[in-house]
UniProtKB/TrEMBL annotation:
<dbReference type="InterPro" id="IPR029058">
    <property type="entry name" value="AB_hydrolase_fold"/>
</dbReference>
<dbReference type="GO" id="GO:0016787">
    <property type="term" value="F:hydrolase activity"/>
</dbReference>
<comment type="similarity">
    <text>Belongs to the AB hydrolase superfamily. AB hydrolase 2 family.</text>
</comment>
<protein>
    <submittedName>
        <fullName>Alpha/beta hydrolase-fold protein</fullName>
    </submittedName>
</protein>
<dbReference type="InterPro" id="IPR003140">
    <property type="entry name" value="PLipase/COase/thioEstase"/>
</dbReference>
<dbReference type="Pfam" id="PF02230">
    <property type="entry name" value="Abhydrolase_2"/>
</dbReference>
<keyword id="KW-0378">Hydrolase</keyword>
<feature type="domain" description="Phospholipase/carboxylesterase/thioesterase">
    <location>
        <begin position="27"/>
        <end position="215"/>
    </location>
</feature>
<dbReference type="InterPro" id="IPR050565">
    <property type="entry name" value="LYPA1-2/EST-like"/>
</dbReference>
């Protein structure tokens, strides 16, 4: 179980989008979808028809509201002096782990996140390496700083897919450089760089993600 502090946000169970009802998802591996900054749970849920149907899917809503006039929701603040503060990413990841502990305590769980959601997915993997089977990080990054699970990850090397575009001007170069250096030493990395892709997801990337997920299903016996 994860440890929560008074500053840990809480995910709203009532706004989660599920690909299957509780009866038909029982026992199936779960893939949790984490949207990006200023978006919502319906964003990545639209990808579900193009992904392997052996998974049950849950698209969750980030717990914070960005400053006006940005719409949607965010996992952590990126404005002002606290922008991309590692402690805020960790708090978001802790909230995610707590929610997963409640709704899926006994099934294999993978994470798929875009941008902020990608950063949170990797942070959750680092917080609870034994809890997650793999992570998919689309246009995101690894948060700088050390976490207690990093040594475990470096030894177990969980599967991670990291995709990004050469024309992505949203994620700072320093974070891309950090991720490029960190992931190969801590994960069984499937890395893809897509020429001309901006801060978005392409059909080719989703095709590569599907191949990655099908490989994970083979490992899980799904």
């Amino acid at each position: 179980m994860s440890a929560e502090s008074p500053n840990t946000p809480v995910l709203d169970h009532d706004v989660v989008l599920w690909s299957a009802d509780e009866a038909t998802r029982t026992g199936r591996p779960l893939l949790v979808l984490l949207h990006g900054y200023g978006s919502h749970e319906g964003d990545l849920f639209g990808l579900v028809p193009s992904l392997p149907d052996a998974f049950a899917y849950a698209a969750v809503r980030a717990p914070l509201a960005p400053p006006f006039p940005t719409p949607g929701h965010s996992w952590y603040p990126i404005d002002g002096l606290d922008g991309r503060d590692p402690s805020h990413v960790t708090a978001a990841a802790s909230a995610l782990v707590s929610w997963i502990d409640r709704v899926a305590p006994d099934v294999p769980v993978g994470l798929l996140g875009f941008s902020q959601g990608g950063a949170v997915s990797l942070q959750a993997l680092r917080l609870q390496p034994e809890r997650f089977a793999f992570a998919v990080n689309l246009s995101g990054y690894v948060t700088p700083g050390d976490l207690p699970g990093d040594a475990t990850i470096a030894e177990s090397r969980p599967p991670v897919f990291w995709g990004r575009g050469t024309a992505d001007e949203v994620i700072p170069p320093a974070l891309i450089d950090h991720t490029t250096q960190w992931l190969p030493g801590h994960a069984d990395l499937s890395g893809r760089v897509y020429p001309g892709l901006t801060h978005s997801v392409s059909e080719q990337e989703m095709s590569d993600v599907r191949v990655f997920l099908e490989k994970q299903l083979e490992t899980l016996g799904g």
